[in-house]
Design a protein that fits this description.
Layout (H helix, E strand, L loop, with lengths): L1 H21 L4 E8 L5 E11 L2 E8 L2 E5 L2 E4 L2 E5 L5 E8 L2 E9 L4 E10 L18 E7 L6 E10 L2 E8 L2 E2 L3 E6 L2 E7 L4 E10 L2 E9 L3 E9 L24 E4 L4 E3 L9 E7 L4 H18 L4 E7 L6 H15 L5 E3 L8 H5 L11 E5 L5 E6 L8 H19 L1
Parallel strand pairs: 21-22, 22-23
Antiparallel strand pairs: 1-2, 1-9, 2-3, 3-4, 5-6, 6-7, 7-8, 8-9, 10-11, 10-18, 11-12, 12-13, 12-14, 14-15, 15-16, 16-17, 17-18, 19-20, 19-23, 21-24, 24-25
GO molecular function, one term: oxidoreductase activity
Pfam family, one: Redoxin
Protein name: Peroxiredoxin
Length: 409
C-alpha cells in the first residue's frame, strides 16, 4: 500500500514539474489563427493549474469551453479539443505558443497556423479606438449574392467598445460572437474548436452596415450587409421541412455505438412521444441542442413518457471512425439516450437517402417530433442556442408546450 502511495506521489511530482518547466503563464491568453488571406482570427482563452495539470477555457461571449486534455512534453504542447475532432500541436517559444491547429475531416486534415501570447485579454485591439456608433439591437443581414443569398437576423449588444451577439439563420446561429466596435468599424470572432469565424463591416450610420466580410476557416469568404430592423425575423422553423405526400410516419434501422441494431419500431418507443434528433458530432448548433436535451429536457420529460434518439451523420461512412467521434460526443455531454450511427454523411442528399420519406432536408440539426401513435407531428429545422437570448427562451417554451400537449393526448 505504501509503495502505491509513493508511486502516486512521484507521478504527481513529475506532472507538476512538467507543467512548471514549460513556463506556461497562468491567466488570459490571446490566440490567433491565420487565414489564407492573411487575416488574423483572434480569440481568448484562460489557462489555469488544476492539481498540477494545465486546463484551458476558450472564451466566446458568455461561453467557456473547457479543455482538459492538455499534454506537455518538454517544449511541446498538445491540446486535444473535447468536440469536433480537432487538436493543437504547439511548441513553447519565449512565452509564446506557436504551431498548428489541425481539424480532422474524416478523409483528410485541414490546418491553420496558430500563435498565442500570454497576459493578453484584448481580442482585436489592445487600445481600441472609441466607437462612433452603438449597434445594440436587431438587424436584418444579407449574406452572399444570387442563389447563395441568405437573409439572417443579427442580434448585437454593445457596452462601450465591446460587442457581443450572433447571427441567426434558418438552420441555426453562429453561436457566441465577441469583438468590438472601433471607430466606424465592426469586428467579431468566434472559435469553438471546430469552427473559426471573423466578421468585419463598415458602419455607415447607426442604421446601416456595409462592406461586410465573413472569413470562415482557412479560406472561406462571404460578403454581407445589414440594416437595423427591430422587426426582423426568420421563417417559422417548423415550416421548412416536411414528409412527402402520403407519409405520416418515418422508419429507420441503424446501429448504436455497440453495434446493435435499433429501430423506431422497437418496444422502448411504443406508445411514447419520440424526439428524433438528426445531428453530427461536427455540428455546433447540434451541441447546443444536445445541451438543452441533456441538461433540462430529458430529465423532465423522460419519466413522463418521452424518448429521444439521436441519428448521427458523420464525415465518414467508416463505422469505427464514426463510432470514435460519436462516443466522444456522448461522453462529453453524458448523453443518456441512444445515439445511432447512420452510415451516411452530411453531404447533400444523404440524409434524404437514409430517410426517404422526407420531402426536403435543410440542415443540421433537424428535429422530428413523433406522437404516441407513431405519427410525425412536427419537424423543426435548425436550433437557436442560448447565444440568441430571447429566441432560445421562446424555443424552449414552445417546445415544452408542444411536448405537454402530445403527452396529454
Amino acid at each position: 500500500m505504501k509503495s502505491k502511495t509513493l508511486l502516486f506521489l512521484i507521478l504527481s511530482l513529475f506532472a507538476v514539474t512538467g507543467f512548471a518547466q514549460t513556463k506556461l503563464q497562468i491567466g488570459i491568453w490571446r490566440g490567433v489563427l491565420k487565414t489564407s488571406s492573411g487575416n488574423n482570427l483572434p480569440f481568448n482563452f484562460s489557462l489555469t493549474d488544476s492539481a498540477g495539470k494545465p486546463v484551458i477555457a476558450i472564451m466566446n461571449g458568455d461561453e467557456r469551453l473547457q479543455v482538459t486534455d492538455v499534454k506537455v512534453d518538454g517544449d511541446s504542447v498538445f491540446i486535444h479539443m473535447p468536440l469536433f475532432d480537432s487538436e493543437f500541436r504547439l511548441r513553447h517559444e519565449a512565452n509564446f505558443l506557436v504551431g498548428k491547429w489541425i481539424k480532422h475531416l474524416g478523409t483528410k486534415d485541414a490546418t491553420m497556423d496558430f500563435v498565442a501570447q500570454p497576459n493578453a485579454s484584448w481580442r482585436f485591439f489592445k487600445d481600441s479606438p472609441a466607437p462612433a456608433f452603438n449597434l445594440s439591437g436587431r438587424w436584418s443581414a444579407i449574406f452572399g449574392d444570387g442563389d447563395k443569398r441568405d437573409t439572417t437576423v443579427g442580434e448585437f449588444k454593445q457596452t462601450g467598445s465591446k460587442l457581443t451577439g450572433t447571427f441567426l439563420t434558418t438552420t441555426g446561429d453562429y453561436r457566441y460572437l465577441e469583438g468590438s466596435v472601433a471607430g466606424d468599424s465592426l469586428y467579431l470572432s468566434c472559435f469553438d474548436g471546430g469552427h473559426a469565424f471573423i466578421f468585419t463591416a463598415k458602419i455607415s450610420s447607426d442604421q446601416t452596415l456595409t462592406d461586410g466580410k465573413m472569413y470562415s476557416g482557412y479560406s472561406g469568404l462571404d460578403h454581407w450587409t445589414a440594416v437595423r430592423n427591430e422587426n426582423a425575423k426568420l421563417p417559422d422553423a417548423y415550416s421548412l421541412t416536411a414528409l412527402k405526400p402520403g407519409y405520416d410516419k418515418i422508419a429507420f434501422t441503424f446501429r448504436d455505438l455497440k453495434g446493435n441494431k435499433v429501430s423506431l419500431s422497437d418496444a422502448r418507443f411504443k406508445n411514447k412521444v419520440v424526439i428524433v434528433q438528426i445531428l453530427g458530432s461536427w455540428c455546433p448548433n447540434c451541441m447546443d441542442e444536445t445541451t438543452f436535451f441533456v441538461n433540462s429536457y430529458y430529465a423532465k420529460y423522460h419519466p413522463k413518457g418521452v424518448e429521444i434518439v439521436g441519428l448521427a451523420y458523420e464525415r465518414t461512412t467508416d463505422f469505427a471512425k464514426s463510432q470514435r467521434t460519436v462516443q466522444q460526443l456522448k461522453d462529453h455531454f453524458n448523453i443518456p439516450y441512444p445515439l445511432l450511427i447512420t452510415g451516411y454523411t452530411p453531404g447533400k442528399g444523404d440524409p434524404q437517402k437514409s430517410l426517404p420519406m422526407l420531402a426536403d432536408f435543410k440542415g443540421f440539426p433537424t428535429t422530428i417530433i413523433i406522437d404516441k401513435k407513431g405519427d410525425v407531428r412536427k419537424i423543426h429545422t435548425g436550433f437557436s442556442g442560448p447565444g440568441t437570448g430571447d429566441y432560445y427562451t421562446q424555443f424552449v417554451d414552445e417546445f415544452e408546450k408542444l411536448t405537454d400537449d402530445l403527452l396529454a393526448e
